[in-house]
């Protein structure tokens, strides 16, 4: 990582279990425009550790936009100013020398802050566990060509499956609604033959779990889709609504 | 809870109720605007009164009116319930937020616009519908609604309130019309253009038509 010459001021949300949290101001020199946003935080944390203070806790894993771990609300937007990228794919060249950048954690009742910028996203896992799976019998795998799948259905399912579960949709939504996430997970299975067995019970259970977790309802503002690093479409939410209402009307689960 | 109440009280169920009652109220507005537009015949209220009398006395229309009141009440109460759940979903807000980067202000302000419309609705029904129906109930006679319009819209403040009500309606419909279709699952490459076109056209034409009524009477274009 080449040392750069950008000067960046940061206002970072710091919070531990014992306090209510608040902003801390930091000043960083020698930031390279080629650094990712997370690498800039690494530089900050090195400074903090050298100074003998607590480094900023933040989520990260793959650092290549595929795991969905990174999650920062940067200057009022999830994953920062660019469209279709995660925080780990955001680079300091998207900012100007001397900028003040405000970084907050995701805010939602269902995503409580654990520490600093790290929030608990287990609610998403519980929604998946409620029905985001298919049953596969053991034994030999059948011939792949025995399941005809229209190209369009495969493409739509794949687009929905691109969701990395980062929670930016919840963070962006004025209602902290998880409908883009849940609809992507329902859609990727509802569109494929393998997902048909549990199709209606899946929609019913995943929506029920989503509501139980305390996520809001959708106002169709489109903020989720606009901020989604994988650009998941609102078409999925419409599909989820059809799946759910259809399941409620026709399923035998009472 | 039975599956039915469970469905209607779920997040999607509540949204669906908003969409269905919203579209129902949208169809009502077409009739309301259509009949009121009869004042533009400028025939001393003759055509308007003829149709107003039909709407106020026809037994089928009067029965449907109960559904209309129910439609309004469900839309209002359900909206308030959604507002409560949605507010509870983010008890601690952001210190710095830039929502205009990802959504329109009016799509985020449906609750606020709806509240303004509710205030307008109270004023508006207190002007016409409530006195007229009370009089019908007490004496069996309809009031002269046309004359009431001419009188009430002499007050510039009232005209202003009505125009502001129409502006709120415009923004509420501009998002609400398309949003209702999305909520019903009606998001389809073949029809999205049509829904969007009709939604925008409707949101402009109906509130404009309504706004022209008090304005025309105030300026004496209709008398
Ligand atoms: S760290 Fe994996 S997506 Fe950002």
From TrEMBL, chain A:
Needed cofactors: [2Fe-2S] cluster; [4Fe-4S] cluster; [3Fe-4S] cluster
Keyword 4Fe-4S: yes
Regions crossing the membrane: none
Keywords per UniProt: 2Fe-2S, 4Fe-4S, Iron, Iron-sulfur, Metal-binding, Oxidoreductase
Source organism, top-level taxon: Bacteria
UniProt KW Oxidoreductase keyword: yes
GO MF annotation list: 2 iron, 2 sulfur cluster binding; 4 iron, 4 sulfur cluster binding; electron transfer activity; metal ion binding; oxidoreductase activity
A biological process term (GO) from this entry: tricarboxylic acid cycle
Domain (4Fe-4S ferredoxin-type) ranges: 154-184
Family: Belongs to the succinate dehydrogenase/fumarate reductase iron-sulfur protein family.
PANTHER family: SUCCINATE DEHYDROGENASE (PTHR11921:SF41), SUCCINATE DEHYDROGENASE IRON-SULFUR PROTEIN (PTHR11921)
Protein name, as recorded: Succinate dehydrogenase/fumarate reductase iron-sulfur subunit
Species this chain originates from: Dyadobacter psychrotolerans
From TrEMBL, chain B:
Sequence intervals crossing the membrane: 16-40, 60-83, 110-130, 152-174, 194-221
Origin organism lineage: Bacteria, Pseudomonadati, Bacteroidota, Cytophagia, Cytophagales
GO CC, any one term: membrane
Protein name, UniProt field: Succinate dehydrogenase cytochrome b subunit
Database matches in SUPFAM superfamilies: Fumarate reductase respiratory complex transmembrane subunits
Domain of life from the UniProt record: Bacteria
Keyword line: Membrane, Transmembrane, Transmembrane helix
């Amino acid at each position: 990582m080449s040392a750069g010459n950008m000067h960046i001021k940061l206002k970072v949300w710091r919070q531990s279990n014992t306090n209510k949290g608040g902003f801390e101001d930091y000043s960083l020199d020698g930031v390279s425009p080629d650094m990712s946003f997370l690498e800039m935080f690494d530089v900050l944390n090195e400074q903090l550790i050298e100074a003998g203070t607590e480094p900023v806790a933040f989520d990260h894993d793959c650092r290549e936009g595929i795991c969905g771990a990174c999650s920062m609300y940067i200057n009022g937007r999830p994953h920062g100013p660019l469209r279709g990228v995660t925080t780990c794919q955001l680079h300091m060249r998207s900012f100007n020398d001397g900028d003040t950048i405000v970084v907050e954690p995701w805010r939602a009742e269902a995503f409580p802050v654990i520490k600093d910028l790290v929030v608990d996203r287990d609610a998403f896992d519980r929604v998946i566990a409620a029905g985001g799976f298919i049953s596969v019998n053991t034994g030999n795998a059948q011939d792949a060509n025995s399941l005809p799948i229209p190209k369009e259905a495969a493409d739509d399912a794949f687009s929905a499956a691109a969701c990395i579960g980062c929670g930016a949709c919840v963070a962006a939504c004025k209602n902290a609604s998880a409908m883009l996430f849940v609809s992507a997970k329902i859609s990727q299975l509802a569109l494929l033959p393998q997902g048909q067995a549990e199709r209606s019970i899946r929609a019913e259970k995943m929506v029920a779990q989503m509501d139980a977790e305390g996520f809001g309802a959708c106002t169709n503002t489109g903020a989720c889709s606009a901020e989604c690093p994988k650009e998941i479409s609102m078409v999925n939410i419409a599909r989820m609504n059809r799946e759910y209402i259809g399941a409620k009307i026709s399923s035998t689960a009472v | 809870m039975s599956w039915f109440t469970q469905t209607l009280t779920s997040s999607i169920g509540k949204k669906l109720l908003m969409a269905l009652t919203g579209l129902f109220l949208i169809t009502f507005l077409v009739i309301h605007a259509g009949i009121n537009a009869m004042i533009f015949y400028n025939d001393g209220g003759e055509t308007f009164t003829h149709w107003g009398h039909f709407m106020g006395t026809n037994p089928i229309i009067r029965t449907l009116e109960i559904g209309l009141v129910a439609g309004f009440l469900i839309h209002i109460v359900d909206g308030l319930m959604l507002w409560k759940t949605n507010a509870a979903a983010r008890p601690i807000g952001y210190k710095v937020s830039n929502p205009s980067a990802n959504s329109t202000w009016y799509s985020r302000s449906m609750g606020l616009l709806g509240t303004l419309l509710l205030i307008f609705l109270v004023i508006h029904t207190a002007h016409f519908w409530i006195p007229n129906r009370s009089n019908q109930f007490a004496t069996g006679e309809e009031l002269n609604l046309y004359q009431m319009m001419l009188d009430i819209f002499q007050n510039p403040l009232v005209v202003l309130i009505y125009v502001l009500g129409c502006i709120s309606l415009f923004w509420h419909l501009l998002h609400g019309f398309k949003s209702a279709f999305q909520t019903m699952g009606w998001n389809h490459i073949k029809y999205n253009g049509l829904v969007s076109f009709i939604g925008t056209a409707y949101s402009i034409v109906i509130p404009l038509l309504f706004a022209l009524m008090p304005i025309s009477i105030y300026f004496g274009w209709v008398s």
